[in-house]
Amino acid sequence: MKPTAKNDRIPAPEERLLLEIRDLVIHYETDDGTVHAVENLDLRLKRGETLGFVGETGAGKTTTALGIMRLIPSPPGVIKSGKILFEGEDLLEKSEEEMRAIRGDKIAMIFQDPMTSLNPVMTMGKQIAEVVKLHRKVSEKEALAIAGDMLELVGIPRERIHEYPHQFSGGMKQRVVIAIALVCDPSLLIADEPTTALDVTIQAQVLNLMKKLKQQFSASMILITHDMGIVADICDTVAIMYAGRVVEYADKTSLFTCPVHPYTVGLFDSVPDLEDDKEELNVIPGLMPDPMNLPEGCTFHPRCRFAVEACRLEKPAMREVAPGHFVACPVRAKMLREHPEKNAGNEGEN
Questions:
Q1: Of 32, 155, 206, 252, which is most buried, counting CB atoms within 10 Å of its CB?
Q2: What is the pTM of this model?
Q3: What number of CA atoms fall less than 13 Å from residue 75's CA on the CB side?
Q4: What are the residue ranges in the chain where pLDDT is below 50?
């Protein structure tokens, strides 16, 4: 794995790009101070691609997703700067009326908790039909017929179209939320930890359903998660996020076989290995920084065993260490350049 030239952005053939985020900055301005939720974030998503968006709670993943949807609560949230180019047009320049036409039609989102995503006093059929009527010129009867088709597509009998959310299990509610998201055949589906509230068996069913429907509808997907197993099963590419920034981006195979950024390595070290007889897992020392008081330079340097003086002074740019594999860590990039025969993920462990 040989490093190539430095590159500040994550490139992709322009004709294949569906979404491009450039230098996105999102803050929450509160009485106690400014929360730096997303800082100078760059991200690209190709058509038909599934991107895994990975990081700890508070890293800025959900805020980024809400930024794409233009649903940042204001106040206190403010999109300070940047561009969110979807199909070549900047969503930040769209009016609220234009965004309402895009949400649910071209871009749809599946939220974490299906219990709070559904209206408890509307039947499931009407909740799906409401989205259809909003974006398609159809009658109530036609919208309900489409809703019935979508219920069957996600594995729920059409006969349950007139039932209410409280009559469904958690897994079935999430299936309905998926049906609502996909009913207008969006180009981009954003799934924000869609299995968090479900037990393990139902999680697997819902993930398999999402994978099948994503292929069937030919949609691109951003899957927000902290579960590397889900990433391995569903995603094509992976973006690792820490303290509001993407610190590593690569295709799934490259990231899993040769993680480079110290934070990414720490994430993998925190996953138990059944073939390893270690008594204790390697842990990343310290805690994520306070988003109201981020460290100067690289935000990870207070927890990083590879940190040098430059890490405390300069914010690292993304560098391409292999074709399509980018990392925001010049120290690790240099180590890999000088010792390309070593696996970057294990280098220096002993």
A1: 206
A2: 0.87
A3: 6
A4: 1-8, 12-13, 344-345, 347-350
